[in-house]
Specification:
Blueprint: H1 16-22, H2 25-28, H3 32-48, H4 54-72, H5 85-97, H6 99-102, H7 110-146, E1 151-156, E2 159-165, H8 166-191, E3 193-194, H9 210-217, E4 221-222, H10 226-229, H11 234-260, E5 268-269, H12 288-311, H13 325-349, E6 351-352, H14 354-359, H15 368-377, H16 382-399, H17 408-414, H18 419-423, H19 428-434, H20 443-456
Parallel strand pairs: 3-4
Antiparallel strand pairs: 1-2, 5-6
Family: Belongs to the lyase 1 family. Argininosuccinate lyase subfamily.
Catalytic activity: 2-(N(omega)-L-arginino)succinate = fumarate + L-arginine
EC number: 4.3.2.1
Length: 459
C-alpha cells in the first residue's frame, strides 16, 4: 500500500520538492500526545458502535501508548515523506498491528482529526497559562504586602500626578492579569466543542457516536455543523488575541520598570540574576529581561496578524492554507509562556528604593489636586478651584518652593475663613489620607483590596 494516506488515487510518486514544501512534521510533532489521546477515544467509540471489535480497540489503545513512549524516548524517526504527526502515528500503528491499525481512521478525516488535536493542545495551553498568570498575580500581591506602607508618585503622561500607595500600584497589575485569566477562561469555554466526527466536511454514513467521544475527551458539547468544523479557526484567533493582550500588559509593565530602574528615576533595585552587563562598560547593569519582554510582545501581536490574514479569504471547509496556523499559535504561546515564567520571580526579587522615593515625594506638586478638592469641599466651584490652585503652583515655581511653603495669606485669598484648613490638606501623607472613594488609593481601601486578593489567590 502507498506510504501516503491518500495514495490510492495517484499513479506517480510525489516530487521530493513538493514533499519538502508541504510537510508540517517539523511543526506539528508537538501535537503527538493529543493525537494519541484523540485516537484512543475514537477507537473506543468505534468498538462501542460495532465498527471494530473490543479486542481490536484494546490493541489500538495499547499500541498508541507504546508509540507515544517511543516518541518521548526519541525512537521515532520523523520524515517529510509522511507529512505530519498524524500520518507518522498512523503508519507506526499499522506497522505494529497491520490491518487492525488500518481500521483506526474509520469515520474520521484528517480535517476533523487535526482540529481536534489542536483544540486539545490549546485547551492544555490555556490551563498552563492560567497557572503562570496566577503565580504572577501572587508575586504582585506579595510585593504589595511587603511594600504596603510605601507612598510613591503616580504618573499620567509620565508626569507626576498624585500620590498613591505602592500596594495600590502593585494591585493594579493583579487586576490586569485577572482580566487576562478571565479572557482565557472564556476562550476555553468557546473552544471546548468537539469537532471529531465531522469527517472531511459532510459527516459520515457510518454509525459513529460523537457524544461518546465528547465525554471521553472532556469536551462540553459537540459541533453542530460539519461544514463549519474544519474551516473554523475562531478559537485560534481568540486564543492568540488573549495572548496578545497578555503580552501587551507585560510590555507596559516592563517599560515602566525599565524607566524606573534608570539612574534618573532610581526607584527599583532589580535583582542581579535578571540583569546583564556590558562587554565594554564595566559599570552597567542592564534590564535585559524586561527589555526582551517588551520586545517579544511584537512577535505575539504579529502572530495574531498572521492568523487574521491567513483566514480572511478562505471558503468553507478545509483549505491547505490552514496548515500555516500552527506556526503562529505555537510561537505566540511559547513567547508568552516564556515571558510569564521569568516575570514572577523578577517581581518577587525586585525591591523599591524607599529612601530615594521618599526623598523626592515633595517634588512635582503631588498634593495639588487634593488642595483643589479641599477648596471644592468648602464651596468653591470646581473650575474656580482648579484655576486658583494652578495660580498657586505657578507661584511655587517662581519661588522654587512647595505649596505648603506659601504664606497663609495666599490660601486665605483663595478660601476666605478656610485658608488654614485647606492648607492643612497639603503634603503627600495628608493627600493620601484624604482619598475616600471605592477603589481609590485610600489606605483603608487598599487594605481591603489586598485582603480580598490574598483570599482569592489563596495566599
Amino acid at each position: 500500500m502507498s506510504q501516503k494516506t491518500w495514495g490510492g488515487r495517484f499513479t506517480g510518486s510525489t516530487d521530493s520538492r513538493v514533499e519538502a514544501f508541504t510537510e508540517s512534521i517539523n511543526i506539528d510533532q508537538r501535537l503527538f500526545r493529543h493525537d494519541i489521546v484523540g485516537s484512543q477515544a475514537h477507537a473506543r467509540m468505534l468498538a462501542e458502535v460495532g465498527l471494530i471489535t473490543a479486542d481490536e480497540a484494546d490493541q489500538i489503545v495499547t499500541s498508541l501508548d507504546e508509540i507515544g513512549q517511543e516518541i518521548v524516548d526519541g525512537k521515532m524517526e520523523f520524515t517529510i515523506s509522511l507529512e505530519d504527526i498524524h500520518t507518522h502515528i498512523e503508519k507506526a500503528l499499522i506497522a505494529k498491528l497491520g490491518d487492525t491499525g488500518r481500521k483506526l481512521h474509520t469515520g474520521r478525516s484528517r480535517n476533523d482529526q487535526v482540529i481536534t488535536d489542536l483544540k486539545l493542545w490549546t485547551r492544555d495551553a490555556i490551563d498552563q497559562l492560567d497557572g503562570l498568570l496566577l503565580d504572577l498575580q501572587r508575586a504582585f500581591v506579595e510585593s504589595a504586602e511587603r511594600e504596603h506602607n510605601v507612598i510613591i508618585p503616580g504618573y499620567t503622561h509620565l508626569q507626576r500626578a498624585q500620590p498613591v500607595l505602592a500596594a495600590h500600584y502593585f494591585l493594579a497589575y493583579v487586576e490586569k492579569f485577572q482580566r487576562d485569566r478571565e479572557r482565557l477562561r472564556d476562550c476555553r469555554a468557546r473552544l471546548n466543542v468537539l469537532p471529531l466526527g465531522a469527517a472531511a466536511l459532510a459527516g459520515t454514513s457510518l454509525p459513529i457516536d460523537r457524544e461518546s467521544v465528547r465525554a471521553k475527551l472532556g469536551f462540553d458539547s459537540v459541533a453542530r455543523n460539519s461544514l463549519d468544523v474544519s474551516s473554523d479557526r475562531d478559537f485560534a484567533l481568540e486564543f492568540v488575541f488573549c495572548l496578545s493582550v497578555i503580552a501587551t500588559h507585560l510590555s507596559g509593565w516592563a517599560e515602566e520598570w525599565v524607566i524606573w530602574s534608570t539612574t534618573e528615576f532610581n526607584f527599583l533595585d532589580l535583582p542581579d540574576a535578571f540583569c546583564t552587563g556590558s562587554s565594554i562598560m564595566p559599570h552597567k547593569k542592564n534590564p535585559d529581561v524586561l527589555e526582551l519582554t517588551r520586545g517579544k510582545s511584537g512577535r505575539v501581536i504579529g502572530a495574531l496578524q498572521h492568523l487574521f490574514v491567513l483566514v480572511k479569504g478562505l471558503p468553507l471547509a478545509y483549505n491547505r492554507d490552514l496548515q500555516e496556523d500552527k506556526t503562529a499559535i505555537f510561537d505566540a504561546m511559547d513567547t508568552v509562556g516564556g515571558c510569564l515564567a521569568v516575570a514572577a520571580p523578577l517581581v518577587r526579587q525586585t525591591k523599591l528604593r524607599r529612601e530615594v522615593i521618599a526623598s523626592r515625594l515633595d517634588a512635582g506638586f503631588l498634593d495639588a489636586t487634593t488642595l483643589m478638592e479641599a477648596l471644592i469641599a468648602r464651596g468653591v466651584p470646581m473650575r474656580s478651584a482648579h484655576e486658583a490652585v494652578g495660580n498657586l503652583v505657578r507661584a511655587c515655581e517662581q519661588r522654587k518652593c512647595r505649596l505648603k511653603d506659601l504664606p497663609d495669606s495666599m490660601f486665605e485669598n483663595v478660601a476666605p475663613a478656610h485658608g488654614t484648613a485647606v492648607k492643612a490638606s497639603l503634603g503627600v501623607e495628608n493627600a493620601l489620607e484624604a482619598f475616600k472613594s471605592y477603589g481609590s488609593t485610600a489606605p483603608t481601601e487598599v487594605a481591603k483590596r489586598l485582603d480580598e486578593w490574598k483570599q482569592k489567590l489563596e495566599l
